[in-house]
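Field: COMPLEX_INPUT
Field: COMPONENT_COUNT = two
Field: RESIDUE_TOTAL = 612
Field: MODE = joint
Values follow.
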Amino acid sequence: MKIKPECATCIIRQIVDISIEVTDDEIEQFRLVKGCMPVINEEYHNNAVPAWMGTVIHRHFKKISNCEDPYKRLKETANDTAQNYIEDVENKIKNSDNELDRLKKCVLATIAGNSIDFGPFSISEDIVPMIEHTLNSELKIDCSKELLEDLKSAKKVLYICDNAGEIVFDILLIKMIKKYVNDINDIVVAVKGKPILNDATMEDAENLKINEFAKVITTGSDIIGIILEECSEEFLKEFEQADLIIAKGMGNFESLTEYNLNHKKLYYILKAKCDPVAEFIGVDLKDSVLLSNKQLQKNLANIDKN
Amino acid sequence: MKIKPECATCIIRQIVDISIEVTDDEIEQFRLVKGCMPVINEEYHNNAVPAWMGTVIHRHFKKISNCEDPYKRLKETANDTAQNYIEDVENKIKNSDNELDRLKKCVLATIAGNSIDFGPFSISEDIVPMIEHTLNSELKIDCSKELLEDLKSAKKVLYICDNAGEIVFDILLIKMIKKYVNDINDIVVAVKGKPILNDATMEDAENLKINEFAKVITTGSDIIGIILEECSEEFLKEFEQADLIIAKGMGNFESLTEYNLNHKKLYYILKAKCDPVAEFIGVDLKDSVLLSNKQLQKNLANIDKN
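Field: COMPLEX_OUTPUT
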């Protein structure tokens, strides 16, 4: 999907937030924000993809701030916040009536985790009420039956993660998916190759010991979402071989929808955290979504007709 | 006062908002936002004054959009919104116990009006609850006793307006002040000389017939706040002759605090609608303030000492 005019406000807020995060020196904060403005101006146009625009600008920020991981502290906080909730959430899922209900609850839990995000939300925003609200809400777009059917016949599943914090909740869904495949190597979890925004990296995955119940790889790069042309051979091989792909969060959605992947069994799980994404999907702001690639194509075709 | 790093987010949001306001054509919206970015980059530095930076950027927007009054519709809406409340507010003031209480209530009413502002707030924000909350709240900084004393000895009062909408509520305070001066020409109300942001202009003043109980002039220019060097002779004469000045809103506060006006009896009336202004004054976001120039100097001196 392409950016909307209002994406200018969001990207500059991210840069302001992170400038204040990496230094207390106001003169330096001005230098960092000002240093990103020409790059924002260059990348901001009606054909830009939000995740790709964000990638270029956040990479530039890392360079001019000489800071390889500006969100490090915030990611640790996000992981801690998620850990505080994980037991409650697990208990809720245990009480599920059946397989489909359990799957839905797992998906909602990972969307609750997707609330922990300093891209669309300001660092100062209190995300705890949003986690609770999401857990107690319904999926606005619900392709869970389709996903359950596909899981039952899946040989190899690729699970593309989004943010730190969120990844703690992702484990619940990953554990459930694992029951449907034969081997630990048949569920592949992908995190970022290098730090970018608050996205989960191998460090997060290792701290959470995800390798105990899945094969963990990286995309091989510091891309917000996925730019296939910049991914590692290893990632591309898994992407090709997987007969079911689950992509978490807005960045993966924004970027993967730029490719023709109609032949893939691909599911997007996300909270629509800004108007441009909500509008593109056809839901309201802050709605929770489990959307198959197939369903998305139908929706877009209907919009084109009307 | 000077801008803070986060002022970048606010100014770009204003430009996005107003681009969407003046055209439905998305390509044109991108052109307008992108067209303002180099000017934002040029004006944005640690020594910039928010109201002055805003002036340059909004003037540039008017030029590249070929639209002399981008906020025209929004200002009309703001005036209508305020008119819906004016009777309720007048009734509240009528029930005042005494002169000081009446003055405070009038001041709070004009601050409630100051909630109607598309500078710091997004166009989509619902301002009605904010008006009601302000009316029922207290002044966080309250120099009303000092103002009442000064009013009693005032010969000539200059009242510098801020926004459309707000100006409807200003009338209540202007009418009260009028009782303390001898002649209609001794209370001078200043609006903007040309449209800028959602600031009140002569058209707003004329529609509200303010000239029936005050002398109405303009600043002679389209400045957010006041840049004395750009004001008309007429305004400067009234500014010089007034022995009591009341300046409404953040723009006037941001800009007038850049001058040495310690010799003036000057009062700022505003709602602190963003963190940089709230921090500078030493109050919380959304607090209501009636602050004398004298008190401000004392506060700033104390901050310097600590």
